[in-house]
Amino acid sequence: MASDELQTHAVGWKWATLTVRWVLGLIFLMAGWWKCFSLTPLGHAQRFFLDSFKDTWIPEWLLYAFGLSIPVIELLAGALICLGFRKREAYIALGAIMVVVTYGHLLLEPLFSTTGHIFPRLVLLVFVWVAPPQYDVFSLDWWLERRRRPPSSP
């Protein structure tokens, strides 16, 4: 590839990474916002965990733990992803939530279709997680890393 083509390719990656990161962040931020401030974490635990999984092998204390913590984690991780701050930790947290949610749906309905709820979020998450870090230049992590590095000599 010629230098101009490489530069155009890099610019495309930078904007794509920013766009996908913000879409993913907003999806989880707004889900967490609704679950924290409209439904409340206790309401989320009751509605989506205790009522749904009471006849499964999962102990009540674990249902409470997941039901209360998921809204807060979604809210915080979504905000962190939008800001581009501590992205790795946020991606890991959301990846864990995706595994829990997928297992829960499949426990209740073994042939549950993941195409409408889970798969789109997973694709966005994987994209930003594996996107080359040098292209995520519109993030606090990138900015902080640049400030920490000593200036390069000519």
Textual characterization of the structure:
The chain has 154 residues and is mainly alpha-helical. Helix content is 76%, strand content 0%. The protein is built from 6 helices and no strands. The chain starts with a helix and ends in a 6-residue tail after the last helix.
Number of helices: 6
What is the approximate shape?
A: elongated
Kindly, what is the distance between the CA atoms of the first and last residues, rounded to a whole number of angstroms? 26 Å
Q: Can you tell me the residue ranges where pLDDT is under 50 for at least 5 consecutive residues?
A: none
H/E order of the elements?
A: HHHHHH
What is the helix fraction of residues, given as a range? over 70%
Beta-strand percentage range:
under 5%
What's the alpha carbon Rg, rounded to whole Å? Answer: 19 Å
Can you give me a brief rundown of this structure?
The protein has 154 residues and is an all-alpha fold. The protein is built from six helices and no strands.
List the helices and strands and how they pair.
Elements lengths: L2 H36 L2 H13 L6 H24 L3 H22 L9 H13 L9 H9 L6
Helix pairs in contact: 1-3, 1-5, 2-3, 3-4, 4-5
What key phrases describe this protein's structure?
single chain, 154 residues, mainly alpha, 6 helices, elongated
